[in-house]
Write a structure and sequence with these properties.
Order of helices and strands of chain A: HHHEEHHHEEEEHHHEHHEEEH
Number of strands of chain A: 10
InterPro entries (chains A, B): GAF-like_dom_sf, HrcA, HrcA_C, WH-like_DNA-bd_sf, WH_DNA-bd_sf, WHTH_transcript_rep_HrcA_IDD
Function (chains A, B): Negative regulator of class I heat shock genes (grpE-dnaK-dnaJ and groELS operons). Prevents heat-shock induction of these operons.
Oligomer: homodimer
Strand order of the largest sheet of chain A: 7-3-10-9-8
Largest sheet of chain A: 5 strands, antiparallel
Protein name (chains A, B): Heat-inducible transcription repressor HrcA
CATH superfamily of the largest domain in chain A: GAF domain
Helix content of chain A: 40-55%
Distance between the termini of chain A: 54 Å
CATH class of the largest domain in chain A: Alpha Beta
Shape of chain A: elongated
Pfam family, one (chains A, B): HrcA
Radius of gyration of chain A: 27 Å
Largest interface: A-B, 40 and 40 residues
Strand content of chain A: 15-25%
CATH topology of the largest domain in chain A: Beta-Lactamase
Structural class of chain A: alpha+beta
Keywords (chains A, B): Repressor, Stress response, Transcription, Transcription regulation
Number of domains of chain A: 3
Chain lengths: ~350, ~350
Amino acid sequence: MLTERQLLILKVTVDDYIQSAQPVGSNQLSKKSELPFSPATIRNEMADLEGLGFLEKTHTSSGRVPSQKGYRYYVDHLLTPRPLPKQDIQQLRSIFEDKIAETEEVIKRSAMILSELTNYTAILLGPDVRKHTVKKLSIVPLTMDTAVAIIVTDNGHVENRVFTIPEGLDPADIEKMVNILNDRLAGVSLNDLHLRLEQETLTVFKQHVNRYGELFSTFRQAVIMPHDDNVFFGGKLNILKQPDFHDLQKIRDLMNVMEEHKHIPMILPVGSQGLHIRIGSENTLSAMEDCSVITVSYDIGEEQTGSIAIVGPKRMDYKRVVTLLDTLSGELSKELTRMIRGK
Amino acid sequence: MLTERQLLILKVTVDDYIQSAQPVGSNQLSKKSELPFSPATIRNEMADLEGLGFLEKTHTSSGRVPSQKGYRYYVDHLLTPRPLPKQDIQQLRSIFEDKIAETEEVIKRSAMILSELTNYTAILLGPDVRKHTVKKLSIVPLTMDTAVAIIVTDNGHVENRVFTIPEGLDPADIEKMVNILNDRLAGVSLNDLHLRLEQETLTVFKQHVNRYGELFSTFRQAVIMPHDDNVFFGGKLNILKQPDFHDLQKIRDLMNVMEEHKHIPMILPVGSQGLHIRIGSENTLSAMEDCSVITVSYDIGEEQTGSIAIVGPKRMDYKRVVTLLDTLSGELSKELTRMIRGK
DNA sequence: ATTAGCACTCACACTCATAGAGTGCTAACA
DNA sequence: TGTTAGCACTCTATGAGTGTGAGTGCTAAT
């Protein structure tokens, strides 16, 4: 078990390293007013902390650096959240200032502001599009043989896709179909769409529309929408600002991971509630073994949730980021819920 | 005036440097079968070429590197376009393989494939959205006080924006308005939209709709759409692959420029026709002084144009990129024109 | 006009010495 | 017994000195 003094020294060491990015020596520490001990005493304690695996040396005669275990202990037990500075709160509030009516727009801005406030990379995941429900379907003919299918969802998201109309189909039939679809599918979630499409509409189609099979399968294809476009980044390039990242190869790997959308679920576990911190190799992706990721979820109404992630070096300003994310998560939940409910 | 042999040596020097990224020495060159001269001879010629400003030395006793003037002469006079390898053509064709019906989708894929083929960064600019013409307008109510305005354009692009409905407005009026708008504005380009909005519809509104003023200005706001979302990138990270870029600061500046949409017009001059090469400081942006940019335009139908840019180091494989862009520009023009015309 | 020969230059890699920051250990101290 | 001063030790970072090699420019011979 760690003594009070060891805890204090661990905390101050981590804090100092987070701030300076330089290995921390006993002399430096003894100068701080929180630690009224001689360098020698501190040295002894640090040696113990190293023995217990909380600190590491970069070489025999260097100062110490927090180990993964050290960071973990720090965030689990030594993190004393401190209220956000006024300025930060003001900036966060500015996200909602302009009365933007679009969920996505708000999330985009959040990503930007968050990355500016932290100097790390922010990734925001909007609510799962598949949980949106259909407000209105329509089909707009473009040329002789193409048309665009449009689905408007309950919170104003618009999905659209151009498709090819089967040769020589009656425009009146398409119109009929759209009407039927709107009648039957309003309020259905995008996720259930292709299921309900068959259950509810196929029989009606048979009665009212010629060549229903062809038309049906065409439309079916058109409404199977991609649903990966609700990821928003802020400060992708902030990685380049961190002195921790100097190895071009590693930077490339890291940026690659973030660029490739398929890796996003690994960074931002979709289901999880509340705030999570993953440090270094606690991340599943090997490209992120030198990073820490802090995630938090937010809620829109009772049904929909989104998440926020901050990606930075292990030497991340945990205290600040945690409070920022806590606050933002709350604000986002509040404002976005308000938005979908109408004022 | 340069002699035949000087031209040959300049060409081979540039080619070699483009390939190896290493300063080129007289010994190396004399080994090539194209240059059956002794190192000494080549040295003399190179000294002349340096005197004339086509080559440079990195230090007194180093090999030579093309100067900006050297590259310029090379692309202007020494570029012997060579037919694309089959494999490349095949890859370019693969862009259109899947019968994608959406202009944007095709452009997105082009950006990706192009960046893969070149290992440089590709920027593709879609046709100016403002030149699209209105196919259909609609307004879908979401909550008590919000609705989403949707504009479908002639080539299947869908613009949408959520807006706030003025307090206590009659839904029937909105419906009326949309009908009027569709009657009057179909075929109008987005650019002229707000102009024609007033000219053509304001008087009609006065006759048919209560509180036309409020409704009109609300809708007017909603249709002033942003039009910057038709820029697509491929291989943003390819910059990190080039050995020419090792200075983290410069990489940051460069990536910053590309990330910021406001700088795009500087990279991709919108009006220009045909193929252009800008080398080093010929670029207006100082962050790109170590880059070369090759741009080319393509046409969709008679009205609309887009452009393609490749951003790479000055030591770019001009020959290859020029032929690639030439070909792609042609293919894109052909296929996209076909698409908006219907098959 | 071309080329072989040669002296010269400079970057790069290597070694070596030194300074400085930090440690661990021991012995003295309160 | 916990704390601290002192000291020897270790390792990095820095800079000076050196040798090597690739390359050049010039001159004289072909």
